[in-house]
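Render this sequence as a predicted structure.
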Amino acid sequence: MVRFATALGYAGGYPEFRRSLQADLVRGISTVNRLQVTETQLAGTGAPELIRDVLERDAQYVRDTVSLIPPDEFQSCVHWINHARRVYIIGLWSSHAPAYLLALGLRFIGSETRLMESRDGDVADDLHGASRDDVIIAVSIRRYARRAIAALDLARDLGLRRIAITDNPLGPLGVRADRVLPVRSGEDRFFRSITAVVSVVNALVTACVMADPRRAERSLASLEEIWARSDAHVADTQPGH
């Protein structure tokens, strides 16, 4: 079982595999059921304890995610992103926020990046002109968006390299991707945490910068000039001034 769990990509071995199976059973219940679980867990909890509970859980999700992501898998993703002609990114519902941050961060550092539309429609429109030199990154935690799954299916047919940031390596995104960056998302609460997802996005952008810092510097310098000319930001002031 230990060898089997490791072969499936669970860096923590059989214990991590077992926790994933347990979490998968909880994921299958509806948001209403998970809300009831949340109410039971937090019944009578005051504001200070509630804040501490949520923040400590988020911190634990990040710590758990560190052990889930194989370093070689992460490094391959960074290499693909930095050497891609274009990076397509899709994330819907709650996953749209980290997908947007990833697209924004990669654009800042000089990557040709396209954030696929969150509206309903044909993913072929968003991937029009894509080639084998491109990469697609799909971000989704359960419940998984059909549009994100369809995007990976089409990307496979077009020959794109596929990366998934998801909470289940064996889920519909994980099995369709060439590289998977697993995250913990808080399966037993009705409102799933995306803290670990955002942390992985932060790590990806930072690693891409460190792999090619000169490109990032040129891109950021150009952006700073544009921001200054357009008066894009409010100048920092002291309180009361």
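Summary. The mean pLDDT is 86. DSSP finds ten helices and five strands in the chain.
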